[in-house]
Amino acid sequence: MALTGTYVPSATEWVRKNVEEFEATDGEKGGTLPGTKYPIVVITSVGVSSGNLRKNPVMRVERDGAYLAVASKGGAPEDPVWADNFRQHPEVDLQDKAEKHTYRVRELDGDEYDSWWEHAVATWSTYAEYKKKTDRKIPLFLLER
């Protein structure tokens, strides 16, 4: 894992607890978002303001070894905080079950955005519902090794 620094758990209780549960088994069992069947990966990023390491559970969307982080925030009117972390520090660590690697992050646009959005919705149809709840374009971030 390439990222080093001080890890500061999320102030948001469900995020903090979800990460703690995932890491309690070193990801061996995997994990799901609370109250759902959606499997997660845990992504560690560098905080824009603090410079501290932040961990977030994100619904697992993978294709050919690349992962997609969908900044939907459940259809909220604003992006999740981690989206700015990705934009400012485009290197993250991702854990999928017990497997951990470092990835480069880039925000998608155009045809590539459309292709990955279709894949995300085909993987988890709830993304289509989230899109209906917001006027913003939901950012998509591709994570590649």
From TrEMBL:
Belongs to the F420H(2)-dependent quinone reductase family. It comes from the Bacteria. It comes from Nocardioides zhouii. One of its GO terms (molecular function) is oxidoreductase activity. One of its GO terms (cellular component) is plasma membrane. NCBIfam families: hi_GC_TIGR00026 (TIGR00026). This is Nitroreductase family deazaflavin-dependent oxidoreductase. Pfam families: F420H2_quin_red (PF04075). It catalyses: oxidized coenzyme F420-(gamma-L-Glu)(n) + a quinol + H(+) = reduced coenzyme F420-(gamma-L-Glu)(n) + a quinone.
